[in-house]
Specification:
This protein is 53% helix and 16% strand. The protein is α+β, with helices and mostly antiparallel strands. The protein is elongated, with a radius of gyration of 23 Å. The two termini are 23 Å apart.
């Protein structure tokens, strides 16, 4: 799920006084906190967006697009959005982005087997420390499968919690 989008024209007009000329603005999907909706506004340098760099600045707006000034509320919202970004964002850099499908796992396993064959050839000429590398490469596919299983379980829990939150939001 993509969590951040470009702001609407009306919202962009309100946010322009906070924006530097070298920044782009993105706005999160809304969350509910104390029966009020809030969104996170992030300011990202234009030239570093694709480099996965942290945003330069953050601010929070309420459901009426007013800037949240309360420091304690901003800290609470920052914590909520931080975890939302980690657990719900499926874009590059998130936990769920590390989840691989079976085809990718099998491809990696085949690649590791090819590496092991290459190491056997190298070992004949330079046996020093090859056994350690071989041991690590042999373990990588099973570690990746275990990691993937844990990520699948985490995703299931997240999906269950999202369903619960949707039910709560409708009530």
């Amino acid at each position: 799920m993509k969590l951040y989008d470009k702001p609407s024209k009306e919202l962009m007009d309100k946010l322009l006084p906070y924006k530097k000329s070298i920044e782009n603005i993105e706005v999160s999907k809304p969350i509910s906190h104390n029966r009020k909706l809030y969104r996170e506004v992030i300011f990202i340098k234009k030239f570093t967006k694709n480099l996965s760099v942290e945003p330069e600045n953050y601010m929070y707006i309420d459901e009426d697009d007013n800037v949240v000034e309360d420091r304690i509320l901003c800290e609470r919202l920052a914590r909520i959005f931080y975890y939302m970004d980690i657990y719900l964002n499926e874009e590059k850099g998130s936990i769920l982005a590390a989840l691989q499908d079976e085809a990718d796992i099998n491809k990696d396993k085949n690649d590791y087997e090819s590496v092991l064959e290459g190491l056997e050839i190298i070992k004949k000429g330079h046996p020093k420390n090859i056994d350690k590398v071989t041991y690590i490469i042999e373990r990588l596919p099973s570690l990746r499968m275990k990691t993937n299983e844990k990520l699948k379980k985490l995703k299931e829990v997240i999906e269950e919690e999202k369903k619960k939150m949707n039910i709560l939001m409708k009530e």
